[in-house]
Structure formats: C-alpha cells, structure tokens
Design brief:
Elements (H helix, E strand, L loop, with lengths): L1 E4 L13 E6 L5 E5 L5 E6 L2 H11 L6 E6 L3 H10 L5 H4 L3 E5 L3 H21 L12 H24 E10 L6 H8 L4 E5 L7 H4 L4 H12 L3 E4 L2 H15 L2 E5 L2 E7 L2 E7 L6 H7 L3 H14 L4 E8 L6 H14 L7 E8 L6 H21 L7 E4 L4 H10 L2 E4 L9 H8 L5 E5 L5 H4 L4 E3 L4 H13 L2 H15 L4 H12 L2
Parallel strand pairs: 2-5, 2-7, 5-6, 7-8, 8-9, 9-12, 13-14, 13-16, 14-15, 16-17, 17-18
Antiparallel strand pairs: 1-4, 3-4, 10-11, 11-12
Helix pairs in contact: 1-19, 4-5, 5-6, 6-8, 8-9, 11-14, 12-13, 12-17, 15-18
The protein binds 6-O-phosphono-beta-D-fructofuranose.
The site of 6-O-phosphono-beta-D-fructofuranose has 8 residues, from loops.
C-alpha cells in the first residue's frame, strides 16, 4: 500500500543522534520516483513494520528509532545521495530513515541473484530439482555480492546504534547481519526476524554446504531469532542441528533456543496479525466504495464471488488456483453464470524472468477459462494485474469465498485481512502450508495446495455454506486474525530482546 505525496520541504540531512532502537530491512518505509524535471516524489509504504515503528515514533517518551534500508531504484539512490545520512522526516512520516546506496550491480546480485532466486526458493521449496539449482561460478560471484551487501548494512547499523541499543534485523536478505554486527558491536542486543517459512533440513541441504552454514551462523550471531509460526522456528532449529551440529534447547517439548560454539540464541514466535482499526476505517473510504460499485457492476447481479488477492510470487500458487476453479466449473455446471472468480495478481519482482513467465501464464489460463465457459453476459474470471489497494479492499468486502492457496507462505496476511473487513461473512479456503493455517485452520476449509481436485471440492463446499455458519466462522476468523496487531507484534519483539 503506497500513499503518494510530494515532499513539501527540500530533502535535507536531519540532526543525527545514535538511536536506542534500530530496524533493518531491505525494503524501507519510503520509496522515491525521479521526475523528468529532476524533482523527487516520495511514496510511503505500509505493512506491519511501518505501523509498529510509527507507534514507537508517536510515543513522546519513546526515544527515536532509526530504520536502515536499501535504495532500491534510481529515485531512491538520488534521494539517498541528496540526503546525506538520513532522509528528511517529511518524506518518511516522521520516521528516521537511513537509505543505503549500495552499488547497483552489488545490490542486483544480492537481491535478485541470492535473496530472491536462492534463499526465497529454498525456504518456499520452489525448485524443479531435476534441473535446478546449479551452484556455479556465477552463483559464487552473487554470493560475494550478498556478503558485501550484508556488510554494508552491518557497518551502517554499527554507526547508527547507541550503546546497548536493540537492533531488529528483518528477513532473508539480511541473514549475515546479526553475526557481522556482533563482531563490530558486541554491546548491542540483536534480533533477527524471518518473514518467510524456513526450509526443512533435507531441503535446506540443497544449498552449498558452506553457504548453508554461513546463513545459519549469521542468524545465530544474534541474541534471538524469531519466526511467524512455531513450525518455521522448529525447522530453523532442525537445520542448525543437521548442518552445524548445534544443540537445541527445549521447554515442554517446544524448542526455545539453539546453543552453538558457546553462545545461546533464543528462538521466538510472533504471529503477525491484521491491523483491524486501520483496515476497517480504510475499507469504508470513498475510493473503496467507488471500486466496490465498479466490481459489482462487472460481476453482475446475484452472482457469488471467489476472491484472491496476491502479489504474483511463484509461491502464491495462482495457476493451480485457476485450475481448481476450472475444475469446479467442469464438475458443477450449476455454478455456470452464478459465480465469478475475482483474481488480483499484482506484479512482483519483475526483474526475474521466471516471475514474468509465471505472470504471463496466469493471464493465459484466465483467458482460456473465460473462452471455455464465458457467455455474452458472464465473465467467469475477472483478472486484474495492476496493484490497486482500495480495489483489493473492495474485493475483500464483497467476497463470498476467499481463496488463499500458497505452496508455502510465512504467514499470509490476506487470509487474516479478508475476515476483518468482510461485509457479509466470507468462507476462507486456506492452504495448510501457509503460516496463517496454524491460527485460522480450525475455522477455514484447509487444503493441500497441490491437490486441484481437493481445492475444487473445497470451493464448491465454500460456495454452498449456509450464510449463518459462514458469518459465525468469519467472526471467529476475525478474532483469531487480530490477536497480535502490528503495533503489539513489534513491541513484543522488542520486549523479548531484553532477556
Ligand atoms: O510478503 C512479504 C515478504 O514476503 C517478506 O518476506 C519480504 O521481506 C518481502 O516480501 C520482500 O518482498 P520484495 O522483494 O517485494 O521486497
């Protein structure tokens, strides 16, 4: 979600003080576009970290926190260059942000080559193993870039953090940072948070041995490593044992820490929830109402809706979702003319050919289904490929069924957001491989995401569900989905960093 605004004050270096809290992530809370006249337009991002950190920023007693992130494109680089050390607070909604201008080739190799093509693939188990992965000399060059990129973050954090500060390092882009930072600043409290799943040991071992070990050692350099569900924490601990021979500590059967080379890294779980206050208010603004009317018009009167909203990542399983919908229409002609699959598949990581091909396949299949079943007044699949947050909220509101069927997912916030804003109750068809299934599985219809037949059956059952049961389930889903809203999720991680 991005709220565009034009900076009304020139970008200038803010006063610099070392911070007691530092957050580090690849993508920051603001991004810039460079206009032809040389001016910059800032767009602010949303998400759990932004809300969490903004809450600390608003606390008058709370000391300033700094967010360290990477410049992602030309606009960001320009802004980072003009800013000096930190960006102007007017652009960032008051947050202190340091944007790192890492050399474009180094950034591309680290982000596209390693983070998105290797680490993302291993944790989501995406390789077609007869042919891939192949770790060759090209990979080694990319790995060296990943090390350099992580080192740039560690250096910047070491510079920004006050004595004894708490540092929260985010995700698979920055796995080496905790270890590198400990070498530079042993006084800091360092936590790492994984927003993705963690691969099970047998799959993790596809990585070259030294790389597999280096990633684990990097994360274990922190005081604490945290995950979105218990399942991913267990997988991480199992990889530490199998790859490094580390010892795991358990309490009441649950893994709580990893001991390795004389140090203990505590493990934690924080299941990020939906931000109900924000979503409910945002979902009733005029721009959402407008889109709701347009969607209703497009769907046609009296038809049910199966809604999905995803960034088009390979792990989201949009193609199998469409195949399951086609199966539903083949098996149950009663739905012809009576249901529309609203599929929002927004672009993601388009620098990678495999993502572009996947997106093209989504479009091709949607057209095929429409050609096979569509009539003059019924379009079975309404596909949108351009990101539009208010339109997503409109679809959440009118969904009769939400299809969330990822191959694997750290959490999946769509599964949590739909029940919160649904107007009349919505049945959730949910992959058992999404982290969200741990919290929502009892009230959802859970599926094996590879099983097209089972997914089609679940869609059929979902469409048939009695409105009373649907509304009751939606209430319970919404309660579970909002158990740990972003502000509290963030605060819990910070609190847990202090032993
Ligand atoms: O959807 C959330 C997420 O999967 C996070 O794990 C990760 O930090 C982020 O996406 C990365 O996405 P991008 O490549 O678009 O920055």
């Amino acid at each position: 979600m991005v709220a565009e605004h034009t900076p009304d004050v020139p970008i200038a270096a803010a006063p610099i003080a070392a911070a007691p809290i530092v957050v580090a992530s690849n993508r920051g809370p603001v991004s810039y576009k460079l206009r032809e006249d040389g001016s910059l337009v800032a767009g602010r991002g949303g998400g759990g970290l932004v809300s969490g950190l903004s809450e600390i920023g608003r606390d008058p007693e709370g000391a300033a926190a700094v967010w360290v992130c990477a410049a992602l494109g030309a606009g960001d680089r320009e802004a980072a260059g003009r800013a000096g050390r930190r960006l102007a607070a007017a652009d960032t909604g008051g947050l202190q942000v340091r944007m790192l201008d890492i050399a474009p080739e180094t950034f591309a190799a680290a982000y596209n080559g390693v983070a998105n093509s290797v680490l993302w693939f291993v944790h989501h188990m995406l390789w077609q193993t007869p042919l891939e992965p192949s770790f060759d000399a090209g990979f080694r060059a990319e790995w060296a870039a990943y090390e350099a990129y992580n080192t740039a973050f560690a250096d910047a954090i070491a510079e920004e953090a006050a004595e004894g500060a708490s540092v929260l390092v985010q995700d698979y882009h920055l796995t080496l940072v905790p270890g590198l930072l400990r070498e530079r600043r042993p006084d800091l409290r360092i936590g790492h948070f994984s927003h993705t799943p963690w691969a099970p040991p047998d799959y993790y071992r596809l990585l070259p041995d030294d790389v597999a070990a280096q990633v684990l050692r990097g994360v274990l350099g922190g005081d604490r490593a945290a995950f979105l569900t218990r399942r991913w924490a267990e997988a991480f601990a199992a990889c530490c044992t199998s790859t490094l021979g580390a010892e795991t500590v358990r309490e009441d059967g649950v893994v709580t820490a990893v001991r390795f080379e004389g140090r203990t890294t505590r493990l934690g779980v924080h299941g990020l929830g939906a931000d109900a206050d924000f979503l409910r208010e945002r979902a009733h603004r005029p721009d959402v109402e407008e889109r709701l009317a347009a969607l209703r018009e497009r769907i046609g009167p009296g038809r049910r809706t199966i809604v999905r909203v995803d960034r088009t990542e390979l792990s989201k399983n949009i193609v199998r979702g469409l195949r399951a919908y086609r199966r539903l229409l083949q098996d149950h002609p009663q739905w012809h003319g009576r249901v529309v699959h609203i599929a929002f598949a927004y672009p993601s990581r388009q620098d990678l050919a495999v993502y572009r091909h996947y997106m093209a396949e989504v479009g091709r299949l949607a057209r095929e289904i429409n050609a096979e079943f569509g009539t003059d007044d019924w379009e079975p699949v309404a596909l949108h490929l351009e990101d539009d947050f208010p339109r997503s909220l409109a679809a959440y509101r009118l969904a009769d069924v939400a299809l969330v069927n990822p191959i694997r997912d750290g959490m999946n916030l769509v599964a949590k957001e739909v029940p919160v804003v649904s107007d009349h109750g919505c049945v959730l068809v949910l992959s058992r491989e999404a982290g969200a299934a741990a919290e929502l599985g009892d009230e959802a219809l859970t599926i094996n995401p590879y099983d097209i037949e089972a997914t089609a059956r679940a869609l059929h059952l979902a469409l048939l569900m009695d409105p009373g049961e649907r509304a009751e389930r939606t209430k319970r889903l919404a309660a579970a989905a909002t158990a740990l809203p972003p502000g509290r999720w963030f605060a819990a991680q910070l609190a847990a960093l202090v032993p």
